[in-house]
Every structure is written in C-alpha cells, then in structure tokens.
Design brief:
Elements (H helix, E strand, L loop, with lengths): L1 E7 L3 H13 L2 E2 L1 E2 L19 H9 L2 E6 L1 H4 L2 H7 L5 E7 L6 E2 L1 E3 L8 H5 L1 E3 L7 E6 L5 E2 L3 E8 L8 H6 L2 H20 L2 E5 L1
Helix pairs in contact: 1-7
C-alpha cells in the first residue's frame, strides 16, 4: 500500500534531514512522549491496577506516522506538515501488515490494550487519515517501506499573480532554492519527482 510522509523544506537543516531519509530509506520513529496531540494515548482505565503497566508499555513504543492517500490529498495536511505547501510528501510502498490504521472515535477508548490506545485518536484528527508504524526498537530510525517518489508542494503557483507573490516572499524563495537542490539529488538517485497542486 502507498503511504505518505510530509516534511517541510525551508532550511538547510530540513534539506539535510530529507536527504538522510532518502539515502537511508529510514524514517524517524518518535517516542510516545514526543507525539504532538495532547490527548495522545489517553484512555479510560478499566482496571486501575494496570495503569503503571500500560504507561510503561506506551513509553517503550516508538511511532512513525504516515498519511493514506486521503490524507495526502487533503490541503490542510500540506498546510500543517509541509509548512503551507513549502515542503514535500515522500511516497512509500509499505507492507500493510506492518502498519496499523488509526481509528477516530468520538470518545476516549475504554481499554487496557496498548496497541488500541496508540491507534485510537479523537475525531478532530480524522482529516489526517493516519497509519502508524509502531515498534519497540531502541533505534530512532527504521526502514518501513520503499520510497517510490517525492511530491513537491507548489505554493501560489496556480494564481494569476503567483510570480509577484513568490518574488516578495522570503520563505517561498528559500523553499524554491532548497527545492532545486533536492530535485538535483532526486534525479541523481533516480527517484521520481511530482508536483502536488
């Protein structure tokens, strides 16, 4: 199955991180405690004697989040995770058996199952159409699938006065500079390049 990882591309550090992903074919897997949702991993304990065990298990996990095609096509995702279209989406081919589809619920789950806790989010995150790779590896970077192509965001390129807007935006000009450097690298590595508009 095809999944997508968004990255911003407006600094030298962003470019270096993306090139590292493309060279190693490995993605950063965040510790549970590093996730961006304040309600991440929240659950209703059905048995209070298991709370410490569940917390320990959650903290042993590393998570790498991807979007399905539905999330990839959502303009809001490009806004949040690709810095307002000033970034990329890396497409990877993943064995469906190694990722978990996130469920979106109205209520916090009532469970003691750590996998269920880590793959359930509240409905307001549903636009992400998220899949998760979950591991107990001590490594913070893991190979999850094969990179098949890179999509570039195209801020303002479909507007009549796009050249004028772009010429006055330092951030977009920086993005375009790093975009050209990354395109050169992708061509050398024979990785397919596409634009998302």
């Amino acid at each position: 199955m095809k999944l997508y990882k968004f990255r911003q591309l407006t600094s030298c550090k962003d470019l270096e991180r993306i090139i590292e992903i493309l060279e190693t074919n490995k993605f950063h897997c965040a510790k549970f405690s590093e996730m961006n949702d304040a309600m991440e991993g929240v659950y209703i304990a059905t048995d209070s004697s298991k709370i410490d065990k569940i917390l320990t298990e959650k903290n042993e996990k590393r998570i790498c989040s991807f979007s399905s095609e539905k999330g990839f096509e959502n303009f809001a995702m490009w806004g949040y995770y690709a810095n307002g279209f000033k970034g990329i989406a890396i497409e990877i081919e993943v064995d469906e058996s190694i990722v978990k589809k996130v469920k979106y619920e109205d209520e916090v789950p009532e469970t003691a199952n750590v996998e269920e806790i880590l793959t359930t989010k509240l409905k307001y995150w549903e636009h992400e159409a998220e899949y998760r790779f979950i591991t107990e590896s001590n490594e913070d970077k893991c190979k999850i699938g094969e990179i098949t192509r890179v999509y570039f965001g195209s801020p303002y390129e479909n507007l009549e006065n796009s050249d004028e807007i772009i010429s006055k935006s330092k951030q977009i000009l920086e993005y375009k500079k790093y975009k050209e450097k990354l395109k050169k690298f992708l061509n050398e590595k024979d990785i397919k390049i596409c634009n998302f508009n």
